[in-house]
Design a protein that fits this description.
Elements: H1 3-19, H2 24-77, E1 97-100, E2 107-112, E3 128-136, E4 143-150, E5 163-169, E6 172-181, E7 186-188, E8 191-192, E9 206-214, E10 220-228
Length: 240
């Protein structure tokens, strides 16, 4: 009579011991499932982070190109030409608009009235000379678009006039400038006011700017815009 309760108690103890813990196989299966879910989640997050960095890098390149385009169009819109040269400086006029087609970055030099004087007593003026040109980095071999502005107009070679040079946009593939001749009613790829056989007394009415740059992935991004010149006829304030 006393053995049956002990046998029942031992069976109940075995069942409770089995249900109170996990076997090694169950733990391994749970760990495998957790590792698989963690790997899938990490891969998804990592892919999202890469996509986010790619979009941010491309937007940064778009912003750099837009700033460069806005700067060029704003500067060109304030270009001007004057027939009132200082006596003795006819060979090197103070105002000009010289544009040359190049293989990669077209060169443009012109006088404009948009210079900002930072100091009241400095030898600067509201008018100055601007130049856009390409410069290749010797280390990275990347082509950059440069902008140089003088402090005032002088009857001298542009390279000999004091000024500041700034990087406008890096990793440039192509800068193409075209100029609209309203008399011929056509677009031309060069404009020279400093030459007698060019257009010495007038400016183009519009300038078309086409800029191609590379993003961080090496893909080319193209931008196109136009700028209208406020004064395309040469100024003449001499008494008649």
């Amino acid at each position: 009579m006393s053995r049956r309760p002990s046998i029942a108690r031992s069976a109940a103890e075995r069942r409770s011991s089995k249900s109170s813990g996990f076997t090694l196989l169950e733990i391994m299966i749970a760990v495998s499932i957790l590792a698989t879910l963690t790997t899938l989640l990490w891969g998804s997050f990592n892919q999202s982070f890469r996509a986010k960095r790619t979009v941010e890098a491309k937007m940064s390149r778009y912003r750099a190109a837009r700033i460069a385009m806005d700067r060029i169009t704003r500067d060109v819109s304030m270009a001007y030409l004057s027939l009132n040269n200082v006596p003795g400086t006819e060979q090197t006029p103070r105002t000009f608009f010289d544009a040359t087609r190049k293989t990669e970055v077209d060169e443009l030099r012109f006088s404009y009235f948009g210079h900002q004087r930072l100091y009241a007593d400095s030898r600067e003026a509201d008018t100055a000379a601007l130049s856009y040109f390409g410069l290749r980095d010797r280390k990275t071999n990347k082509l950059s678009l440069m902008r140089r502005e003088t402090r005032r107009l002088q009857a001298d070679r542009l390279e000999a006039v004091a000024g500041e040079t700034d990087l406008l946009c890096d990793d440039v593939v192509r800068l193409e400038l075209s100029y609209y001749d309203h008399i011929k009613k056509e677009w031309v790829d060069s404009w020279r006011t400093s030459q007698a056989d060019g257009t010495p007394n007038r400016l183009p009415t519009r300038v078309r700017v086409r800029l191609i740059i590379r993003d961080d992935q090496g893909e080319e991004l193209a931008f196109l815009t136009e700028s209208r010149l406020g004064m395309f006829q040469a100024l003449d304030t001499s008494p008649h």
